[in-house]
Amino acid sequence: MRFDRITVDPQVAMGKPCIRGLRFPVSRVLGLLAAGETKETVLQEYPCLEPEDIDESRRYAASHGRLTPA
């Protein structure tokens, strides 16, 4: 599976998967959702994110056996 919005760079966030090269780890997005935040709330709180970033974070996690897509 290919992820266009997820990047992994050893020089960014210690090589953790991040959103579009930003210093915003996928794990942070998933943690917010797991804590009960809605997609809309996350987008309001973090204007650097786009709806597709959240969707792809969920697909990335699902492909790695960490959660199921919504």
Total domain modules: 1
Helix content: 40-55%
Give the quaternary arrangement of the chains: single chain
The CATH class turns out to be Mainly Alpha
Which residues form runs of ≥5 with pLDDT under 50? none
CATH topology: Arc Repressor Mutant, subunit A
Ends distance? 17 Å
Query: Judging from the principal axes of the Cα atoms, what is the shape?
Result: globular
Q: Kindly state the mean pLDDT as a whole number?
A: 91
Strand/helix succession: EEHHH
Description:
The chain has 70 residues and is mainly alpha-helical. The chain has a single domain, classed as Arc Repressor Mutant, subunit A (Orthogonal Bundle), CATH 1.10.10. 41% of the residues lie in helices and 6% in strands. It contains 3 helices and 2 strands, in the order ββααα. It has a two-stranded antiparallel ribbon. The longest helix is centred in the last third of the chain and has 13 residues. The model has no long low-confidence stretch (mean pLDDT 91).
